[in-house]
Design brief:
The protein is of the alpha/beta class. The chain is built from 20 helices and 19 strands.
Amino acid sequence: MRWQLRESDPEQIAALARQLPVTGLDTAQLATLAHLLITRQIISGESVTQFLTPSLAQLHSPYRMSGMQAAVDRLDAALERKEPILIYGDYDVDGTTAIVILKTAIELCGGTASYHVPHRIREGYDMRDDVVERAAAEGIRVIVSVDMGIRAFAPAETARKHGVDLIVTDHHLPGPDGVPNALAVVNPNQSGCDYPCKSLCGAGVAFKLAQGLMERRLSGADHTRLLMSFMKVVAIATIADSVPLIDENRIFARLGLEGLRSAVNPGLKALLEVSQLGGKPLSSTEVAFRIAPRINAAGRMDVARDVVDLFSVKDAVRAQEIAAKLNQLNTDRQEEERRIVDAILARLEEDAALREAYCIVVDGEGWHRGVIGITATRVVERYGRPALVIARDGEQAHGSGRSIGAFHLLDGLESCRDLFTRYGGHSHAVGFSMPSQNVAELRARMDAFARARLELKDFEPVLRVDAELPLSQITPKFYAVLERMEPFGVGNPEPVFAAHGVRLLAPPTVIKEKHMRLKVGATAAGDAGSSWRQTVSYKAMGWRLAEQVQNLGLLAGDLLDIAFTLNHNDHPEFGGLELSLKDVKKAAG
């Protein structure tokens, strides 16, 4: 693995270090912190304060988003006239939580809203004409899409023909044909929209609509209190959808994680309990890997309406029943995912041409469509190449794809648009449907498209190291300041540090056959200094690094180069600061 050190201007580092609103750090530690902030585009004292102390006051006005005024005006009129409203949302975490947010806001403002979540298998992604027609027949005159609709041209025309006002709220990239002919299109990524935060998830866009509606309908005190109550759900969606945790997304995530410590909604409390996270401070990692999968499991394996019901139910017992169901569905999802991944890896190991394609396209009959996106992620993680995983069902096929940083996956699909019956997504993730007979052609064309844009070096694993950090600079106060940079995620990655020439103080210990624990000390020449900190030692956990470390043949006394993140172990007996290893090498020379 190649280490790539992030760089920034020394003069800029020194200037920002003098402005940092922190105490208790030495000059070197302040410089390291300034460097971390600069590489995240935080370059002034004012932006540092906003970054370290996000608040509701930093939210942008929702009316800066194109289409927002018309959308709020129409919803406001619907509330005045007591018109029913239909919310049409996607079946994943982002879509279902967006429904919860907007439905709750409408009801708090005195209106009523029903909702429709497509069944992943029977209906597929995006809006359908028959659902719009059925809503119109039932007297619905306002439909709001959430986390979908930016390419729903035919349903928009169907709505118009039946006298239904369609409001599209979405965050996915519009296609080459522009946006649907709806009453209002609210999407920060549409042409001509100057909204400052372009990276909102679908629930984030729905929240901005809810914010605008509540500003119109509610008093100031109620409005502020309710905005804070929504932060918990918006945070879950924002983290789960892997959008950059910058600008408003950082505010959502930071305030929402704080709010999750004291959740009062019965469904949310039950979800935290089955995730074994109740009553404790949460990190973005725990939301992404323990809460989000249980919410997603509903849409992947069964009916996503369960998620909306979970957040809407008032009875604690019923909430626990729904949460338990989601937990079981997640277990089922894991088993199905494992089965498909094993089949894919077997195919790739047997077929060198398939494995060495610049964009891997692999298909299988009868694979569960609800988990192919996750399996595409696993392929990318293992082979470092963009991947499309396709579930064939007779003459029809449904696919999902994930990419690497150097390859814009949606552009690849655009180049093959004639092969699909529908498709969409963004640079890193896509979904599509197509006739099964087109799979082979898609495989050839995507490989050719990728070969024209990628080089072999783009597939080489790269570990981005934020800064050099000698072990002598690791102190509780330094770690406390790092914690203020949380939550970490896309756009604000957890800082990875490198220390060179540290000494291995004891033989490595294997944990559960696949992990490795090391004890390292700041006593090597590479960590020079004269303070007591030279003599401290740290536990370093190498998660899933047992085989790699064993292959190095390490002995006590060896000098190592290590890349790591900083963590705090809360165990009452052997807690404290520890290192989480990302890579280990024998020191050069």
